[in-house]
C-alpha cells in the first residue's frame, strides 16, 4: 500500500463571523436586527500535498488563500473538514518531547511577523527550547547553525528585529520556522513584500532549503511569475473555492477555467511590451454575499443560465488536472 | 479599520531608512532614553520628579520634624509665617500650619502619602487591568465581550462618584483610598491594554508563536505583554497623576485621609481656610508642590508617549 | 426696598416647621411661624403667641393666647390652631426625619382648649418646663395645614402661612429662600422688605461672598479670619457665647477597645475609670491655647454644662487651669506614670473647628505621656458609631463604640434640667435618662438629684438640685468640658446684629444703623 | 504617438535635488534627477523601495513637507518653472495642469467625506460653476473611468468601495481638469492582477485620447514593460539609467538594471535566479562614488568617483563608469 | 440601531441594579441618618419613632424590595431631608447642572479647538509649546483648588465676578437659564470655566494630535495635489476627521463632567444636583443618593447613545452594530 501523503485535507471550510448574544438573538427573532454577518472564507476545499512537492496557491485578494494556509499550518481551526498529516489528524496527537512540529508558516509581513522585543537568538531558539528539540547546552550551536544555513550573519545574534532589513527579517522568520524541524512550510506571500532584488534572494533560499532538507512547500502568492517559477503544482482559488488545479506547467500553458485564463492574461510580463490590456471587468464579489451558482459567473464572459444556478463541481478534466466549470461538460 | 493593510512595510518608518542594520548594538532602552533626552522640557520634568521622589523617600531623614509625631508639633507654634523661629529655636522655613506643624516637613511627608497613594493604586490597577485586558484580547469571543461590557460599565460611571461612594461606604484611610482608586482605574488599564493587545494579537508574530505551539501563558506574558508595555507605561504615568489629583479632591470633600497624617491634598484643603486671612503658605506651598509633582509626571508621561510611539519606534 | 441677604452654612431643607429639628431649618421657619413661647437672646422664655402662662396646679398649665393675631392670609389665630398643631405633631408626620413631637411627649402632656384664647396643658406629674418645651413647638394654621402633604406643600408656599414677621416668597432649592415683610405683624414694624437666605457650604466661599458684597451677612465666618475681619473697617462681627458645650467624653466600660497600654494591649481595668486619670487629662488641656490658636480667640473655656445666664449655671465652677506637671503627677499617683495609649474620636463637620480641636487635644495629651491617636469623620458616620457603633449592638440595644470622643451638647431650652439628665444621668433607654451619655457614666448621687429636678416645679429648689448634680459630676470629672462655642456672624458695615445664644440667625435681630 | 518636438516638453526636470533634514542627518532623497516628458508620453520610473521615486514625484508637484525641502534644480511644466513658485501659483497649477495619483487607494480618499464632496471640491478648486453643474460633471467623470452606477457611487463613502474602484475614483479626480502631466505613484501596487489590468487599460486609453503625459512610478518592471514608452531606473536617489523601454529592458547599460531584470523569474526556467547580492544602502551611509559599487560585480577603483548620467546610445543615458551596452549588445 | 439601543438599555438596567444594590446596602452600613436629624434631647423612644417614620425599621433587604417595587412604578422615594419626591428634587435642580456642564462644554470647544489647531499647525513654535504647557495644568490641578483661587482673584481681590450662586435666570421652554442675562452670565463664567478646564485640556490635546496626524495623511496630500485651497482643506477635509476623536472622548467625558460638577458646584454654591449629592451624602439621605445615581446612570446611557449616534454620523466607517465598540 502506498504510504499516505504528507498532508491530506478533506472538505475544509472556514466561516468567520460574530456570534450572536442573547439580545441579538431575541431581536433577530422579531426581525429587528439582521442576523450576524458570516464570511465563508474557505468552502469545501480538499487537497493533497505529497512529500517533497511545491504546491502553489493563487487567486485574488480575499479569496481565502491565507485562511487555507493557516488551517494547514494548524493556526486556525477549520469550521468543518479535517486535515491529515501522514494519515493522522493534524495536531490531534500528543507530541512526544523532542519531536518537531509537522508544519510551519512563513508570513508575508517580515515586519510584523517577528516579535520586536526579542533578540534574534531568542526568536529562533525559543521554540526548540520549549519543545525540547535540542538540549539546553546545545541551543546556541543549534541557533547558529540555523542562522548560517539561512544566510544571517552570526554577529547579529544579539540584535532586535527592527535592526534588520526586510530580506534579512524574512531569513530570520525562515530560520525560526526551521528550528522546529517542520516537514511542510506554508509560505503565505512570503516574498511579496520584498524588493525585486531581494525577492530573488529569498526564492533562491527556499529552493536551496528544499534541496538540502527535502522540505515540502505550500506556496501562496498572487505573483504568478514567482509561482510559475517555483511550483510543481498549482491550485487556483476564487471566492473561497478551488476552481482549478494541476501541474504548474500545464496550467500556465493551457489554463482551463475561464477565471484562470483571465488571470493569466492579465499578468504583465517583462517581455510583453506596450500591451493593450483587455481585462475581465468587475471586482471579486464580497464573500459576505457570494453569488449563487458558479461564483465566477458575474464576471465570466461565457456564463450561461446553468452557471447562475448550479455550482460546478471540481472534476478531473485530464490526469492530475481538476477544474470546476460547466463548460467542460458541454465540450465533453 | 483595515485601510493600512496593503502598504508595503518598507515605508513604515523613517528610523531605518533603507532597512540597513544599524552599526551599533543599541538596546531598545538606550534608544528610548536618547530620544527622551532630546527634549529639554521633558528632561527637566524628569529631574524635578526625581528630586521630588527622592525627597519624599528620604522624608524621615531630611525633614526637620516628624509632623506625624504629636510630641513634635506644638499648637503654640501655629500659623507662623515662613522663616519664623519656634520656641525651641528651630526655624520653620516654610512656616507652620494651624496645628503648629512645620509646613516643610508636612509637605515632605504629605508627598510620601500622595505618591504612595498614586503609585500603589496605579500599580495595582495596572496589574489587574493589564491581566484582564490581555486575557480579554487574547481569548476573545464571549469572554472578551463580557469583560469589555464590565469595563464599559465601570468606565461609564464617573470616577469621582465611584470613589465618593466607595469611601463613604468603606470609611477613611490610605488603604481605603487606594482601594477606591484601584476600583476606579483598573478599567482604564484594561481597556487600553486590550486595545493595544488586540492590535498586537493580530500581528503575525503572535500567529507565529501559536504556530510554534508555544503555550498560551508563554504567548500571553512572554510575547503579548512586553509589546503592550510602552502604552501601559504611558497610561500608568497619566493615571498616577490623576490618582494623586483625585485623592486631593476627595480629601477636600472630607473623605480622604486622617487629619494627623495629611497628604498634600489634605494640607491644601485644610490650609484653604487660612488663605483669606493672608496665611497663604499653609495652602499655597503644598499646592505648588502638588502642582509641580503632577505636572512633571504628566510631562514625563507625554514625552514617553512620544518616544514610545510605535510608529516612531519601529 | 431694603433687602437683607444672608449667606448661611447649611441649607434649610423644609419650610414645614414640624418636619425636623435642624437649626438650619428652624431659623428660616422662625421668620414665618411662631410659637406660644419665644426665647430671648439668652434662650429664656418670653411671651410669644401666648401672652402669659401659669401653673394652675401641680400638673396643669394654662396658656393665655395673644389677641388680634392674624395669619398671613388674614384669618384670625385661635386656640384651635394651637390644638391642631399639637395634634398634628402627636399624630406623627409621615416621613418626617425628626419632628419635634418628643417635646410634647415629655411629661406625658395632654392638652385642651378652654376658650378661643385659652389652652390648658396637663402633665402626668409635676413637670416644671412646659413653657420651655412649648418654645420648641411652632404653631401652624389649621385652615391651611389640615390635610396637606407634609413638607411638600409648605415648600411650595401653599401651606407656608404663619403669623410671623415675614411672608413666604420663594424657595429655590439649593439657591435661595426668600421671605418678605409682613406689614401686619403684631410684634411691630419690620425693618426689612425682603430677606434672602443663600446657602454657601464652603467656609472660604461664604467669606468670599461677604467680602465681595454678594451677601450682606454670613453665619459661621471661618475662625481663622475673625481677627482680620474685626480689624477691617468695612465689616462688623457680632458674637455671643452659644448654648453649645463642647466636651470630651470618656467611656466607662471595664474594657475599652481604644484604650491600650504602651505595648498595644487592651488595658484592664480601664484607666479612664479612675477619676485621677480623667482629672489629669483635663489639666493637660490648654483651653486658652485652643481658644487663641484655633478658635480665633472665640470660645469660652468652662467647667459648666450650661452657659452663663442659663438656668443652672454655677459661677463657682471655673475652667480647669492648664497644668501639665500636676497632670503628670496625678497620672503617676494613679499608677500610670508611664502613660498609655488611646484614640480620640470626633466629627469633622459638626462643630466649629472640631477636627482641629481633636488634633490639638491629642497633641496635649501625648505630651503628658498619653499617646493619643486621632480619628475624625463626617458627622453621619461619627454619630451613628458614637451611639451604637459597637459590634455588640443589636436593634433596640445600643452600645457605643468609642472610648474617648469629642462631642457637643446644646441646651436648647435655656435651662439645665435636660442637659443634666441627658449627659450626666445614668443611661436608661426606657425613661430617656442619659440619652446623651455615650460614655455610660453612672453615679447614683447625680441620678437621684436629676430625676427629682425633673419633677420639681419650684425654681429655687430645682436650681439647687441641678447645681448639686453638676458639681458632683464635675468633681468626679464625669466628662471633661472644654468650652462653650462662641458664635459669630460677620456682616457689612452699617448692620447691627443682636446675636442670640441658640445659634439662629434671625432677620428681625439685624438692623441698619447707617 | 504624437511627438511635437518643437513645443517645450510637457514636463522638464533638471538636476532636481531634495533633501530631508532629520535628527540623524541630511538625507538626499532626490539627488540630481533629470527627466523629460512629452505630451502623450508614458515614462516608467522604476526602482527599489526607498530609492526616491515617490519623493521625486512629490518634488515635481511641490508637495514635499518639512523636514524635507527642495534644495536645487528646476521643474518646468510646459516651460513654467515650478521650483520656487509661490504657493498660490502652485495651487493654481496643481490639479489643473499637473496631477498626481497615489499608491494606496485606501489612503488617498478622505474616509469621512462622500465621494461627491471630494470630487466636486477638486473640480471647484479650478472651475467656477454651481454645485449642481459640478455634480453632473463629476458624475460623467466617474462614468468615464468605468464605474457602474455613478450616481449611487457619488453618495458613497470611500470605505464602501473596493480598492480598484477607489483607485479609479482617484484617477478620475486627477483627470478632471485634463492636466498636461499626471504622476502616478504605484497606483496598482496594492491591487489584484485583474484589477491592475483594468486600471492599466484605463490609463493607457485616457493618455492616448487626451495626450496627457504620464509618469508611472513602480517597482514592477513587468508593468512598465507593458505600458511605458520610456523608462528611468532610480537607485539611492539618483537616476542610474534612462532610455526607450525596449532598449533598456533588452540591453541594460547599468549593472543594477541588468541585475533587476535578471532577478525577475522567467517562465519555464526553474533554476536559481541570478540575484543581486546585498541591498540598497541607507541614504545616510552612501558610499562616496557610485552608490551601486558595493553590490556591483564589475566595480573597480574608478567607481569611487561619482559617475555622471552620460549618453550610452540614441536617446539613452546611464550613470556608470563601465556601461554594459556595447559588450552586452550582442546578447 | 434598534439592537444597539436595546443592548444599551439592557446594559444600563444591569448597572442600575448593581448600583442600587451597592448603594442601598453600603449606605446602610455606614451610618444612620436618624442621629443627624434627632436633637440632643430626643430619647430612645423618640429615635425609634423617627426610624419608623423613615421606614428604616424594616430589614434592609425588605426595604430594598419595597424600593425596587416603587422604582418600577416610577417612584424613587421621598428624600429623608426634604420630604419631597427625590426625583422631583433632581428635576428641579437638574437644569442648573446641565447649564453649567454645557457652558463648560462650549468653553472647552470654543477655546480648545482654535488653540489646538494653532498648536497643531506649528508644533514647534513657542506659542504652541506654551499652549501645550498650560494645557497640562488642566489635567493636573485639582478642580477645587483652581476654583478657590479663581474666587480669590476675581471675586475677592478684583471684585469683577460674583462668587456664589446662579444669578438672574430667564425661563426658556420652561427651563431656567442664566446665560441669557448679563447677571446670570457673570455668575456662570467662573464655575463653567473651572469645570471646563479638564475638557479644555483634552480638546487642545486631541485637536493637536489630530492635526498632526491628519495633516500628514495621504488624503490631505491628495487634496493639496488637486489644488484645493488650504482653508477648504482645513475646515472640511481635516476638521471632520479631527472632530471624530474629539466627539468620542468628549462624549465619554461629559458624564464625568456632570459628576465632577459635584466639586465645582460645592465651591461656587451652584444650585445644581451635584451640590445636592454632597449634602445628601453628608446626611445619608439614601433615597436622594440612590435617585441621583439612578438619574446619572440614565443620563449616561442617553449621552453615550447620542455620542455613538453622532459618532456614526461623523464617521461613516462606523456602523451602529453589535455590542462591542
Ligand atoms: N479573522 C477573520 N475574521 C473575519 N473575516 C476574516 C478573517 N480572516 C479573513 N477573513 C475574511 O476571509 C476572506 C478570506 O481571507 P484571506 O485572508 O484568507 O484571503 P487571501 O486570499 O489571503 O487574501 P490576500 O491576498 O489579501 O491576503 C476575506 O474576505 C477576509 O475578509
Ligand atoms: N519624512 C521623511 N523623513 C526622512 N526621510 C524620508 C521621509 N520620507 C521619505 N524619506 C526617505 O526618502 C527616501 C526616498 O523615499 P521614497 O518614498 O521616495 O522611496 P520610493 O522609491 O518611493 O520607495 P517605495 O517604493 O517604497 O515607495 C527613503 O530612503 C525614505 O526613507
Ligand atoms: Mg493573505
Ligand atoms: Mg513610494
Radius of gyration of chain D: 21 Å
| Helix share bin of chain D | 25-40%
Proportion of residues in β-strands of chain E: under 5%
The CATH architecture classification of the largest domain in chain E is Orthogonal Bundle
In the predicted model, the low-confidence regions of chain D spanning at least 5 consecutive residues are: 327-331
- Number of domain modules of chain E: 2
- Please state how the strands of the largest beta sheet of chain E are arranged side by side: 1-2
Query: Quick one: how many beta strands of chain D?
Result: 12
Largest interface: C-E, 69 and 57 residues
Pfam family, one (chain A): oligo_HPY
Membrane topology (chain A): Peripheral membrane protein
GO molecular function (chain A): ATP binding; ATP hydrolysis activity
Family (chain A): Belongs to the ABC transporter superfamily.
Overview of the molecule:
With 332 residues, chain A is an alpha/beta fold. Helices cover 31% and strands 21% of the residues of chain A. Chain A has a domain at 7-102 and 182-245: P-loop containing nucleotide triphosphate hydrolases (Rossmann fold). Chain A contains eleven helices and twelve strands. The longest helix of chain A is centred in the middle third of the chain and has 18 residues, at 196-213. Chain B has one domain (25-71, 81-312): Orthogonal Bundle (MetI-like fold), CATH 1.10.3720. In chain B, a hairpin with a 5-residue loop joins β1 (84-85) and β2. In chain B, 67% of the residues lie in helices and 1% in strands. The longest helix of chain B is centred in the middle third of the chain and has 37 residues, at 103-139. Chain B has helices at residues 28-37, 40-57, 59-62, 103-139, 141-155, 159-170, 174-201, 204-211, 216-252, 264-271, 281-308, 310-313, and strands at residues 84-85, 91-92. Chain B has a two-stranded antiparallel ribbon with strand order 1-2. Chain B has twelve helices and two strands. With 314 residues, chain B is an all-alpha fold. Chain C is 27% helix and 25% strand. In chain C, β3 (37-39) and β4 form a beta hairpin. Chain C has helices spanning 23-32, 79-90, 101-105, 130-134, 142-145, 152-155, 203-211, 226-231, 275-283, 287-294, 324-333, 354-367, 379-388, 417-423, 444-454, 459-475; strands at residues 3-8, 34-35, 37-39, 45-47, 50-57, 60-65, 110-115, 118-122, 138-139, 166-172, 176-181, 194-199, 217-219, 235-250, 259-260, 299-301, 340-347, 370-377, 404-410, 480-492, 495-497, 510-512. In chain C, α9 (275-283) runs antiparallel to α11 (324-333), α14 (417-423) packs antiparallel against α15 (444-454) and α15 (444-454) packs antiparallel against α16 (459-475). With 331 residues, chain D is of the alpha/beta class. Chain D has helices spanning 53-61, 87-93, 105-108, 115-124, 131-144, 150-155, 163-175, 193-210, 221-227, 245-250, 255-263, 325-328, and strands at residues 11-22, 25-37, 42-47, 68-77, 80-81, 98-101, 181-185, 213-218, 230-235, 238-244, 310-313, 316-318. In chain D, the strands form two sheets. Chain D has an eight-stranded mixed beta sheet with strand order 6-7-8-3-9-10-12-11, with helices on both faces. The longest helix of chain D is centred in the middle third of the chain and has 18 residues, at 193-210. The radius of gyration of chain D is 21 Å and the shape is globular. The chains are: A alpha/beta (332), B mainly alpha (314), C alpha+beta (514), D alpha/beta (331), E mainly alpha (325). Chains C and E meet through α3, α7 and α13 of C and α2, α3, α5, α7 and α10 of E. The complex binds adenosine-5'-triphosphate (2 copies) and magnesium ion (MG) (2 copies). One magnesium ion (MG) binds next to α2 of chain A. One adenosine-5'-triphosphate sits between chains D (20, 22, 27, 29, 47, 49-55, 68, 219, 283) and B (8, 10-11, 14, 17-18).
Amino acid at each position: 500500500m502506498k504510504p499516505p501523503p504528507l498532508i491530506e485535507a478533506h472538505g475544509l471550510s472556514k466561516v468567520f463571523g460574530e456570534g450572536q448574544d442573547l439580545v441579538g438573538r431575541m431581536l433577530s427573532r422579531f426581525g429587528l436586527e439582521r442576523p450576524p454577518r458570516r464570511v465563508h472564507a474557505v468552502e469545501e476545499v480538499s487537497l493533497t500535498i505529497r512529500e517533497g512537492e511545491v504546491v502553489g496557491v493563487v487567486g485574488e485578494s480575499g479569496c481565502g488563500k491565507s485562511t487555507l494556509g493557516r488551517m494547514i499550518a494548524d493556526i486556525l481551526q477549520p469550521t468543518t473538514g479535517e486535515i491529515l498529516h501522514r494519515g493522522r489528524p493534524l495536531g490531534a496527537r500528543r507530541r512526544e518531547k523532542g519531536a518537531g512540529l509537522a508544519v510551519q508558516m512563513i508570513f508575508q509581513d517580515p515586519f510584523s511577523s517577528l516579535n520586536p522585543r526579542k533578540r534574534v537568538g531568542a526568536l529562533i531558539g525559543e521554540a526548540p527550547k520549549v519543545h525540547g528539540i535540542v538540549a539546553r547546552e546545545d541551543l546556541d550551536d543549534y541557533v547558529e547553525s540555523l542562522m548560517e544555513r539561512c544566510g544571517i550573519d552570526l554577529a547579529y545574534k544579539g540584535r532586535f528585529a527592527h535592526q534588520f532589513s526586510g530580506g534579512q527579517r524574512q531569513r530570520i522568520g525562515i530560520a525560526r520556522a526551521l528550528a522546529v524541524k517542520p516537514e511542510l512550510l506554508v509560505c503565505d506571500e512570503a516574498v511579496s513584500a520584498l524588493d525585486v532584488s531581494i525577492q530573488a534572494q529569498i526564492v533562491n533560499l527556499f529552493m536551496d532549503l528544499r534541496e538540502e532538507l527535502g522540505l515540502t512547500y505550500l506556496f501562496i502568492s498572487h505573483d504568478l511569475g514567482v509561482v510559475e517559477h517555483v511550483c510543481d503544482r498549482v491550485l487556483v482559488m476564487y471566492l473561497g473555492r478551488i476552481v482549478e488545479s494541476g501541474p504548474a506547467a500545464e496550467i500556465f500553458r493551457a489554463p482551463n477555467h475561464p477565471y484562470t485564463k483571465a488571470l493569466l492574461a492579465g499578468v504583465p510580463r517583462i517581455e510583453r511590451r506596450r500591451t493593450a490590456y483587455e481585462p475581465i471587468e468587475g471586482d471579486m464579489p464580497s464573500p459576505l454575499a457570494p453569488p449563487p451558482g458558479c461564483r465566477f459567473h458575474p464576471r465570466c464572459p461565457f456564463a450561461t443560465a446553468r452557471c447562475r444556478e448550479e455550482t460546478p463541481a471540481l472534476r478531473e478534466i485530464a490526469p492530475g488536472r481538476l477544474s470546476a466549470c460547466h463548460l467542460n461538460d458541454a465540450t465533453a | 479599520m483595515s485601510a493600512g493593510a496593503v502598504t508595503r512595510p518598507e515605508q513604515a518608518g523613517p528610523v531605518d531608512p533603507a532597512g540597513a542594520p544599524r552599526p551599533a548594538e543599541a538596546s531598545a532602552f538606550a534608544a528610548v532614553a536618547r530620544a527622551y533626552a532630546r527634549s529639554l522640557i521633558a528632561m527637566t520634568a524628569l529631574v524635578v520628579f526625581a528630586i521630588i521622589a527622592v525627597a519624599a523617600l528620604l522624608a524621615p531623614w531630611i525633614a526637620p520634624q516628624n509632623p506625624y509625631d504629636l510630641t513634635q508639633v506644638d499648637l503654640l507654634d501655629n500659623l507662623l509665617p515662613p522663616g519664623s523661629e519656634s520656641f525651641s529655636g528651630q526655624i520653620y522655613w516654610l512656616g507652620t500650619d494651624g496645628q503648629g506643624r512645620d509646613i516643610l516637613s508636612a509637605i515632605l511627608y504629605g508627598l510620601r502619602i500622595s505618591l504612595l497613594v498614586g503609585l500603589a493604586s496605579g500599580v495595582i490597577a495596572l496589574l489587574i487591568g493589564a491581566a484582564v485586558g490581555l486575557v480579554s484580547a487574547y481569548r476573545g469571543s464571549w469572554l472578551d465581550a463580557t469583560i469589555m461590557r464590565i469595563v464599559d460599565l465601570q468606565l461609564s460611571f464617573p470616577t469621582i462618584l465611584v470613589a465618593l461612594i466607595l469611601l463613604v461606604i468603606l470609611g477613611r484611610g490610605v488603604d481605603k483610598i487606594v482601594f477606591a482608586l484601584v476600583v476606579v482605574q483598573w478599567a482604564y488599564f484594561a481597556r487600553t491594554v486590550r486595545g493595544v493587545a488586540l492590535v498586537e494579537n493580530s500581528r503575525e508574530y503572535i500567529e507565529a508563536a501559536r504556530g510554534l505551539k508555544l503555550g498560551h501563558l508563554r504567548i500571553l506574558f512572554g510575547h503579548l505583554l512586553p509589546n503592550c508595555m510602552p502604552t501601559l507605561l504611558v497610561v500608568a504615568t497619566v493615571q498616577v497623576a490623576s490618582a494623586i489629583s483625585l485623592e486631593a479632591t476627595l480629601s477636600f470633600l472630607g473623605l480622604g485621609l486622617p487629619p494627623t497624617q495629611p497628604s498634600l491634598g489634605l494640607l491644601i484643603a485644610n490650609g484653604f481656610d487660612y488663605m483669606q486671612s493672608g496665611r497663604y503658605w499653609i495652602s499655597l506651598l503644598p499646592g505648588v508642590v502638588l502642582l509641580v509633582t503632577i505636572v512633571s509626571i504628566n510631562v514625563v508621561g507625554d514625552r514617553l508617549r512620544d518616544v514610545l510611539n510605535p510608529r516612531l519606534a519601529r | 426696598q431694603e433687602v437683607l441677604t444672608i449667606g448661611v452654612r447649611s441649607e434649610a431643607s423644609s419650610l414645614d416647621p414640624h418636619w425636623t429639628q435642624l437649626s438650619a431649618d428652624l431659623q428660616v421657619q422662625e421668620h414665618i411661624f411662631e410659637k406660644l413661647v419665644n426665647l430671648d437672646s439668652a434662650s429664656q422664655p418670653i411671651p410669644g403667641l401666648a401672652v402669659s402662662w401659669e401653673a394652675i396646679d401641680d400638673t396643669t398649665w394654662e396658656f393665655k393666647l395673644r389677641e388680634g393675631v392674624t395669619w398671613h392670609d388674614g384669618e384670625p389665630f385661635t386656640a384651635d390652631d394651637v390644638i391642631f398643631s399639637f395634634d398634628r405633631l402627636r399624630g406623627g408626620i409621615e416621613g418626617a426625619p425628626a419632628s419635634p413631637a418628643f417635646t410634647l411627649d415629655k411629661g406625658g402632656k395632654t392638652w385642651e382648649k378652654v376658650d378661643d384664647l385659652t389652652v390648658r396643658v396637663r402633665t402626668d406629674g409635676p413637670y416644671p418646663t412646659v413653657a420651655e418645651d412649648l418654645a420648641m413647638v411652632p404653631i401652624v394654621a389649621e385652615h391651611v395645614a389640615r390635610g396637606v402633604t407634609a413638607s411638600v406643600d409648605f415648600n411650595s408656599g401653599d401651606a407656608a402661612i404663619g403669623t410671623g414677621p415675614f411672608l413666604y416668597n420663594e424657595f429655590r432649592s439649593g439657591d435661595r429662600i426668600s421671605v418678605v415683610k409682613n406689614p401686619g405683624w403684631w410684634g411691630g414694624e419690620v425693618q426689612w422688605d425682603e430677606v434672602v437666605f443663600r446657602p454657601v457650604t464652603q467656609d472660604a466661599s461664604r467669606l468670599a461672598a461677604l467680602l465681595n458684597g454678594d451677601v450682606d451677612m454670613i453665619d459661621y465666618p471661618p475662625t481663622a479670619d475673625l481677627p482680620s475681619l474685626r480689624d477691617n473697617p468695612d465689616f462688623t462681627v457680632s458674637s455671643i457665647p452659644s448654648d453649645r458645650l463642647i466636651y470630651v467624653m470618656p467611656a466607662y466600660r471595664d474594657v475599652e477597645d481604644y484604650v491600650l497600654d504602651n505595648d498595644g494591649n487592651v488595658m484592664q481595668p480601664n484607666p479612664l475609670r479612675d477619676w485621677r486619670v480623667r482629672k489629669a487629662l483635663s489639666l493637660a488641656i490648654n483651653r486658652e491655647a485652643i481658644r487663641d490658636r484655633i478658635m480665633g480667640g472665640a470660645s469660652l473655656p468652662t467647667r459648666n454644662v450650661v452657659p452663663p445666664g442659663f438656668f443652672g449655671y454655677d459661677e463657682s465652677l471655673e475652667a480647669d487651669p492648664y497644668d501639665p506637671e500636676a497632670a503628670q503627677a496625678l497620672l503617676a499617683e494613679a499608677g500610670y506614670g508611664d502613660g498609655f495609649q488611646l484614640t480620640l474620636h470626633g466629627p469633622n463637620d459638626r462643630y466649629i473647628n472640631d477636627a482641629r480641636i481633636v488634633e490639638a487635644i491629642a497633641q496635649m495629651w501625648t505630651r503628658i505621656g498619653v499617646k493619643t491617636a486621632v480619628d475624625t469623620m463626617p458627622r453621619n458616620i461619627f454619630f451613628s458609631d458614637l451611639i451604637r457603633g459597637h459590634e455588640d449592638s443589636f436593634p433596640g440595644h445600643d452600645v457605643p463604640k468609642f472610648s474617648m470622643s469629642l462631642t457637643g451638647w446644646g441646651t436648647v431650652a435655656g435651662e439645665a434640667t435636660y442637659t443634666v439628665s441627658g449627659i450626666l444621668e445614668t443611661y436608661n433607654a426606657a425613661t430617656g435618662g442619659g440619652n446623651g451619655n455615650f460614655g455610660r457614666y453612672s453615679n447614683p448621687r447625680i441620678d437621684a438629684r436629676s430625676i427629682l429636678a425633673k419633677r420639681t416645679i419650684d425654681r429655687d429648689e430645682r436650681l439647687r438640685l441641678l447645681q448639686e448634680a453638676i458639681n458632683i459630676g464635675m468633681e468626679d470629672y464625669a466628662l471633661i468640658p472644654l468650652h462653650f462655642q462662641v458664635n459669630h456672624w460677620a456682616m457689612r458695615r452699617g448692620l447691627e446684629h443682636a446675636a442670640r445664644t441658640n445659634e439662629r440667625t434671625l432677620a428681625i435681630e439685624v438692623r441698619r444703623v447707617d | 504617438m504624437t511627438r511635437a518636438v518643437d513645443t517645450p516638453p510637457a514636463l522638464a526636470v533638471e538636476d532636481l535635488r531634495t533633501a530631508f533634514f532629520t535628527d540623524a542627518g541630511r538625507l538626499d532623497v532626490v539627488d540630481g534627477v533629470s527627466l523629460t516628458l512629452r505630451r502623450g508620453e508614458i515614462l516608467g520610473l522604476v526602482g527599489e523601495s526607498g530609492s526616491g521615486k515617490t519623493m521625486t514625484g512629490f518634488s515635481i508637484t511641490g508637495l514635499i513637507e518639512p523636514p524635507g525641502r527642495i534644495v536645487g534644480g528646476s521643474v518646468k511644466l510646459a516651460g513654467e518653472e515650478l521650483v520656487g513658485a509661490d504657493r498660490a501659483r502652485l495651487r493654481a497649477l496643481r490639479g489643473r495642469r499637473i496631477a498626481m495619483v497615489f499608491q494606496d487607494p485606501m489612503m488617498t480618499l478622505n474616509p469621512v467625506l462622500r465621494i461627491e464632496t471630494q470630487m466636486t471640491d477638486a473640480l471647484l478648486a479650478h472651475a467656477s460653476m454651481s454645485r449642481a453643474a459640478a455634480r453632473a460633471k463629476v458624475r460623467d467623470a466617474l462614468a468615464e473611468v468605468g464605474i457602474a452606477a455613478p450616481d449611487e457611487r457619488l453618495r458613497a463613502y470611500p470605505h464602501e468601495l473596493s480598492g480598484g474602484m477607489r483607485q479609479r475614483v482617484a484617477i478620475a479626480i486627477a483627470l478632471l481638469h485634463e492636466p498636461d502631466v499626471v504622476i502616478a505613484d504605484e497606483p496598482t501596487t496594492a491591487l489584484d492582477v485583474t484589477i491592475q489590468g483594468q486600471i492599466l487599460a484605463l490609463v493607457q486609453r485616457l493618455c492616448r485620447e487626451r495626450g496627457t503625459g504620464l509618469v508611472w512610478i513602480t517597482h514592477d518592471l513587468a508593468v512598465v514593460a507593458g505600458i511605458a514608452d520610456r523608462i528611468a531606473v532610480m537607485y539611492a536617489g539618483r537616476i542610474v539609467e534612462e532610455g526607450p523601454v525596449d532598449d533598456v529592458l533588452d540591453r541594460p547599460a547599468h549593472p543594477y538594471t541588468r541585475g533587476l531584470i535578471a532577478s525577475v523569474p522567467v517562465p519555464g526556467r526553474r533554476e536559481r535566479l541570478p540575484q543581486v547580492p546585498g541591498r540598497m544602502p541607507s541614504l545616510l551611509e552612501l558610499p562616496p562614488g557610485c552608490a551601486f559599487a558595493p553590490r556591483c560585480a564589475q566595480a573597480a577603483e574608478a567607481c569611487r568617483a561619482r559617475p555622471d548620467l552620460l549618453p550610452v546610445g540614441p536617446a539613452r543615458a546611464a550613470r556608470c563608469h563601465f556601461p554594459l551596452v556595447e559588450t552586452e549588445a550582442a546578447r | 440601531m434598534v439592537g444597539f439601543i436595546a443592548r444599551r438599555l439592557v446594559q444600563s438596567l444591569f448597572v442600575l441594579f448593581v448600583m442600587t444594590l451597592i448603594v442601598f446596602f453600603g449606605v446602610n452600613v455606614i451610618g444612620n441618618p436618624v442621629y443627624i436629624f434627632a436633637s440632643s434631647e430626643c430619647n430612645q423612644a423618640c429615635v425609634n419613632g423617627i426610624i419608623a417614620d423613615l421606614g428604616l425599621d424594616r430589614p434592609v433587604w425588605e426595604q430594598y424590595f419595597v424600593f425596587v417595587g416603587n422604582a418600577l412604578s416610577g417612584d424613587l422615594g421621598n428624600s429623608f431631608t426634604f420630604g419631597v419626591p427625590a426625583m422631583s428634587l433632581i428635576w428641579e435642580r437638574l437644569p442648573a447642572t446641565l447649564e453649567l456642564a454645557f457652558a463648560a462644554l462650549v468653553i472647552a470647544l470654543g477655546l480648545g479647538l482654535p488653540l489646538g489647531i494653532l498648536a497643531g499647525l506649528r508644533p514647534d513654535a513657542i506659542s504652541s509649546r506654551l499652549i501645550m504647557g498650560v494645557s497640562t495644568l488642566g489635567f493636573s490641578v485639582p478642580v477645587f483648588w483652581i476654583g478657590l483661587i479663581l474666587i480669590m482673584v476675581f471675586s475677592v481681590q478684583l471684585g469683577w465676578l460674583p462668587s456664589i450662586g446662579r444669578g438672574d435666570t430667564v425661563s426658556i421652554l420652561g427651563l431656567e437659564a442664566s446665560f441669557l442675562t448679563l447677571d446670570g452670565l457673570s455668575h456662570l463664567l467662573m464655575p463653567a470655566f473651572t469645570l471646563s478646564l479638564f475638557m479644555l485640556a483634552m480638546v487642545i490635546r486631541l485637536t493637536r494630535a489630530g492635526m498632526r496626524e491628519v495633516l500628514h495623511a495621504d488624503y490631505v496630500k491628495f487634496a493639496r495635489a488637486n489644488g484645493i485651497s488650504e482653508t477648504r482643506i482645513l475646515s472640511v477635509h481635516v476638521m471632520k476627521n479631527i472632530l471624530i476623536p474629539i466627539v468620542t472622548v468628549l462624549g465619554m467625558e461629559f458624564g464625568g463632567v456632570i459628576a465632577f460638577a459635584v466639586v465645582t458646584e460645592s465651591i461656587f454654591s451652584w444650585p445644581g444636583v451635584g451640590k445636592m449629592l454632597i449634602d445628601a451624602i453628608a446626611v445619608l439621605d439614601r433615597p436622594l443618593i440612590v435617585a441621583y445615581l439612578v438619574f446619572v446612570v440614565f443620563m449616561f446611557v442617553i449621552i453615550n447613545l447620542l455620542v455613538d449616534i453622532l459618532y456614526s454620523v461623523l464617521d461613516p466607517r462606523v456602523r451602529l452594530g453589535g455590542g462591542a465598540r
